[in-house]
Amino acid sequence: MKFSANEDCIQVIDETTNVVNIINELTMHGTTNNEDPFYIFDIGDVVKKHQSWIERMPRVIPHYAVKCNDNDVVLATLAALGTSFDCASKVEISKVLSLGVQPERIIYANPCKSKSSIIYAREVGVKTMTFDCDIELQKIKKLFPDANLVLRIRCEAEIAQCALGKKFGCDPVIEAPKLLKTARSLNLNVVGISFHVGSGCADFPIYRKALGFCKVLFMKAEELGYNLTIVDIGGGFPGDNDKSIDEVSIIINQSLEEYFPEKHVRVIAEPGRFYVASAFTLITNVHSKKNIYNPLSDEIESTMLYINDGVYASFNCLLYDHQIVKPKLLKDHSETEKTIKTTIFGPTCDALDEIIVGANMPESIDLGDFIYFENMGAYTLPVASPFNGFPLPKVYHFIERDMWQMVRSMIPVEANDRFIEDFIGKTIEIVSTTA
């Protein structure tokens, strides 16, 4: 296998492989600048996630949350597979529309929108959008009275990586019925109810509770003359490679059958990390090391490693997404090797740039060693900045040939030629087993 360090291509690999093999290929042959961090993006992992979603929740139409990871190849892959999208800004809407996605496949899921954003949505035909207060309704009435509105209620999980209720959503019991009446008085078209239990949810029964609120509001809306047709169950779905959606899908499917057995009700969701978390692996390099000595014995009692990516770039997920990252060493180390308390810092001159504290790691880790981190596809690259002058990681894309053939067979006919010939500006390269 000869994997090249070329961001501008998608490499189709003839053999079964894994990310570690590709990392070794890139680092051992000097095809990358080892002083800069980089990602390996397994496109096939996204496709497998899409298959898993369809198999486990066939009634729930996924609208990928663009804010989670707006990588061009991610969006193009999902667009080609027929996925819909959750956008929160003019730029996100524009980016998705540029892929040939019809505006009907977009929900503008930001309850608090600027005036210019509402006007833009109107001009490009994105009619479905959320709201959670009366002032937003007044704004929409003035700027886009023909919009299809989805009322966002608040129903938060007790355990979630990122709670959203303190910023978005209305109380489902007291505020929501009043807002439905306000929308009715303004002659606005409310078409559904939405909620978001929190990003990275670990309290799956909360979906049943939230769907119960939706059912009650559907009935209240009917009393006002509305015929609601959309239930948006938001995001919160796990995406790491050691997690699945089996448990949450059972709860959601059972709850939908209980509260919304009517097939005319369209059920959508806004998964983000589910699709991309495990598809991206970050590879970093140790550029500096500092040993901390016991002042009495003069023995090393801990060590500090400095790597080429940090909290101002990919590891912003530690601050904003409350993620727990797990370092893995590319170089083999004996299980019996002596370990030492290790703190890993990013490259900037800010002491806040701290990634791992007090981990037990092999004492022999040295300059030039590679440390990689799995499950780094969610809320990393979109928020990264080149603070202090350090470059952002490049992204290298690959897919196994068997998966590539399957993807081509899944793509709608009208999108197939573009996908093959010009996949979002990336050329297709075949990596042969004999290369």
From TrEMBL:
Keyword Lyase applies: yes
Gene3D superfamilies in alphabetical order: Alanine racemase (3.20.20.10), Lyase, Ornithine Decarboxylase, Chain A, domain 1 (2.40.37.10)
Keyword set, alphabetical order: Lyase, Polyamine biosynthesis, Pyridoxal phosphate
UniProt EC number: 4.1.1.17
Family: Belongs to the Orn/Lys/Arg decarboxylase class-II family.
General function of this protein: Catalyzes the first and rate-limiting step of polyamine biosynthesis that converts ornithine into putrescine, which is the precursor for the polyamines, spermidine and spermine. Polyamines are essential for cell proliferation and are implicated in cellular processes, ranging from DNA replication to apoptosis.
Protein name: ornithine decarboxylase
Organism, scientific name: Polypedilum vanderplanki (Sleeping chironomid midge)
